[in-house]
Amino acid sequence: MRRYGAVLRGNPQYAKLWLAQVVSLTGDWFGTVVLSTLVAALSGGSGLALSLFFLSRFVPPLLLSAQVGVITDRYNRKHVLVVSNLSRALIIPLFLLVDTPDLLWLVYVVSTAQAVMSALFEPAQSAILPSLLRDEDLIYGNTLLNVTWSAMLAIGAAAGGLFTASFGPTAALTVNALTFLLAGVLTSSIVYDPMRRRAATDKPKEQTTFADGVRFLRRHPSLIWTLLVKGATSLGNVDTLLAVLATQVFIVGNRGELSLSILYAVFGVGAFFGPLIINRWNNGSIARMRWFVLMGFVFSFSAWWLMGVAGSLAFLAFAVLIRGVGGSINWTFSSVMVQRQTPDAYLGRMFSIDYAFFYAATILSTLAHGALVDVLGIDGMQTILFGTALVAGLPLLVWAVQMPRLNRLKAVGAGD
Fold first, then answer.
1. Which of 5, 96, 126, 240 is 20 to 30 A from 192 via CA?
2. Which fold has domain 9-192+210-408?
3. H helices, E strands: number in the chain
4. For the chain, first and last CA: distance in Å?
5. pLDDT tens digit string along 303-317?
6. How far is it, in rounded angstroms, from Cα 321 to Cα 307?
């Protein structure tokens, strides 16, 4: 862990971004626990209602991916981050208006508005990282951001469940809004030169187009496969099924908010330790990180089979932990590979495509899970979980077959 402390000390502008993430994620997981249990309660436990809630968070980033990529490459990425944080601080209090089933629609509307502003944040954060970090710290900086997300998932979800049970959803959502306000202040203090990493041959920003980004991607097929990793991992998305299992099967707390917070927390623990442990064998090459991605697919595939045979909350939590390990490994090292393979002028558009694949797979998985829960009911949960395991095995098989060919292709950047 000393290496990660050195990254924060040696990269002060990155440290501000990291601290902003710590603050905002703490509140964000408060909101996730509150709203998931609220939707389940107001809808009578409908799987479709829960799926619609998660879709309201996933669809906007997918639909806006092309525009977000251009915005991230054309405008100051620091300003994009600040606007995203402050706007969410203003949007979140609107959830407080929902207190009866006839207002459930408002949850979806406000969640969609929040997701629109969140869509700006992730690609901008990933694209700005190489400008805030020394080159030798890029892998560790990405890992630290990802394990911080995981740690705050574990801490924020657990604390969110306890806080909500103790003080109610109004207090939890208020904390959520205040954390985004503080994150906006922190990101506004970052000192960042958007032209530092731009080559003299790069096109002027006003000529930045999404079509140009697609042409760049077509010239570099190995990068295409890297951009598919997050989406392939999310073909077995956990959100809807965890919410159903926590609120209808393994219920702890009034509405299952404690059991849901436990499952999210152990997912965060797995996601925290996965990249940290694997990094011990990382030599920085893209070829090595492709092997790590294969391992991530193995963990994810295995986790769904374990969930299918879980007969207790404790065993389910163990399976969810394994799923967290696999997902975090793939998220972390696919991001590093994109940064290593892509010139700065194209990073925003490449990450917008990267996240578009992720959200598309998440939407398909969420829709399928919600529909299957409503059709098969709780008695059919094992069938749903085993079916998800089969789907999760497809990217594992494809990546294992394609990896040797990818390692023979010429990389875009100097990471191989």
1. 5
2. Growth Hormone; Chain: A; (1.20.1250)
3. 17, 0
4. 26
5. 999 999 988 889 999
6. 10
